[in-house]
Amino acid sequence: MFRPRVLPVLLLKGKGLVKTVKFNKKNATYIGDPINAVRIFNDLKADELVFLDITATIENRTISYDLVKDIGDEAYMPFAAGGGIRTVEQAVSLIASGAEKVVLNSSAVSNPDLIRNIAATIGNQSLVVCIDIKRTLSGKYQYYVLGGLKKVEGDPVQHAREIQERGAGEIIVNCINRDGMMSGYDIKIIKQIADAINIPVVACGGAGNLEHFKEAFYLGNAHALAAGSMFVFHGARRAVLVNYPTRTELLNLFCNRENNYENKTRLPDRNMLIINKIKRDIHDQGV
User: Fold this and answer.
1) What is the pLDDT of residues 270-287, one digit of tens each?
2) Whole domain around residue 88: which residue ranges?
3) Residue 224 resides in a domain
4) Total structural domains in the chain?
5) Inside any domain, residue 268
6) How many helices (H) and strands (E) does the chain have?
7) How many Cα neighbours within 13 Å face the side chain of 223?
8) Rounded to whole angstroms, how far apart are CA atoms 250 and 1?
9) What is the CATH number of the domain that holds 37?
10) What is the rounded average pLDDT for all residues in the chain?
11) Which residues carry out catalysis?
12) Which of 94, 76, 74, 95 is nearest to 84 (CA)?
């Protein structure tokens, strides 16, 4: 039975895993060793992993090829690697090191032709572009590069269209305001982008429970669901504990008609999802 992919997104800073809140790198929480995390996710049978080096671009380097190779030697599942990729050769080297996909972000803005050139070399199925988006107090959406430090003039939805036209195979919609908050995805911008393009959209930023996955999938039209904090923290005090839902939990979440929000008998639950989203939007705007 079909269900969307569920992806842990693991952030690298130096040689360790960290987790940020609203992209604040200085106060990032140390999570542990990336290889140990891979081994745990192996045991938990995660669908796919995404590794992003959050300081690589600023430090003018790429994510470590050696680390990617070590991850590839351990991981049972496919994984994507991103951080500081500026050339076709770097993308090829990461694929050769064991990554199934590479992730672009800043370079997709500074050098848009890189998308087309990488896609032509390794295939668009192996090329992901991440868009880091922030919602202003007025409700406008803006996108950023350099790890959220530099605002780009333009519409993120149009940016997504251009990314698709240049040959990317997938887009991660990452919401800066929601990063690490575990209060739910920004459904509005996820849906706007998912409805505007034909390639898969991965929702990222804000997931804190399984219900948030359902919101992004059924209301946001996301094709896959990514999370960070949800998979590395446990409890109100955010104790570090690598975790992942069981296959049974995920199947029940998406494949059980009793839980399907597209089932007309579940319409009140769908309405409640919409109400909860409106409440979060009001809270974000400080009303």
Assistant:
1) 455 556 556 556 656 655
2) 5-245
3) yes
4) 1
5) no
6) 11, 14
7) 14
8) 11
9) 3.20.20.70
10) 92
11) 132
12) 94
